[in-house]
Amino acid sequence: MATIRGRAEVGSFLASLPEQLKNKVLRGAARSGANVIAKEAKATVISEEVRSAIKVATAADDGRIIGKVQVKGRGAYIAPWLEYGTDPHFVAVADSQRSGLSVRKVNEQIGDHEALKINGAFVTGTVFHPGASPHPFLRPALDIKEAEAVAAAQQYISTRITKAGVTGNDEGDEA
Question: Of 65, 58, 32, 26, nearest to 166 (Cα)?
Fold first, then answer.
């Protein structure tokens, strides 16, 4: 009769495999792919403030591993204006030209826009901002580098899964 040895070890290894893959491989793979996209976004953005605010992070959510390219910190508020542009809008409207309306109401008459306040007070005089053209950098980075990001994630996985098992540790998210 045949004797089976190592059944408990194999069972233990198989039981621990999903957690090892999640912690040692998949988050790192997601990060590797996201780093490719972030590098391209940093190369194409026209604002140094926004460039320094582009970050990579990963998250585990409902059994999924998510790689994120985010704009966080100083300069992050500028990113949507660059990505999508801005519509023309009044920053301030002189009292003589408002017809008793607030700057917000004047802007609402020409479209749904907000007025500029500095330290909680409207800027005085009439100032019309002509809007700003969009300079997209996040979506084009994904469109241009998607295949390279997938390849980077696959390379990360390939270097961590060997015949000997799952190797290495996840390096953690970038700040």
Answer: 26
Q: If we measure between CA atoms, which residue out of 69, 78, 84 comes closest to residue 30? A: 69
Please tell me the pTM assigned to this model.
0.71
* Tokens read off for 86: 């801005």
pLDDT range class, residue 175, cuts 50, 70, 90: very low
Read out DSSP for 32-74?
HHHHHHHHHHHHH-S-HHHHHHEEEEEEEETTEEEEEEEE-ST
Backbone angles phi and psi of 7, in degrees to 5: -60, -45
Write out pLDDT tens, residues 57-109. Answer: 999 888 788 999 999 999 899 999 999 999 887 766 666 766 777 767 776 77
User: What does the alpha-carbon distance between residue 163 and residue 131 come to, in Å, rounded to a whole number?
Assistant: 58
Alpha carbon 48 to its chain's center:
16
Q: How do 161-162 and 165-166 pair as beta strands? A: antiparallel
* 81, 46 contact by CB (below 8 A): no
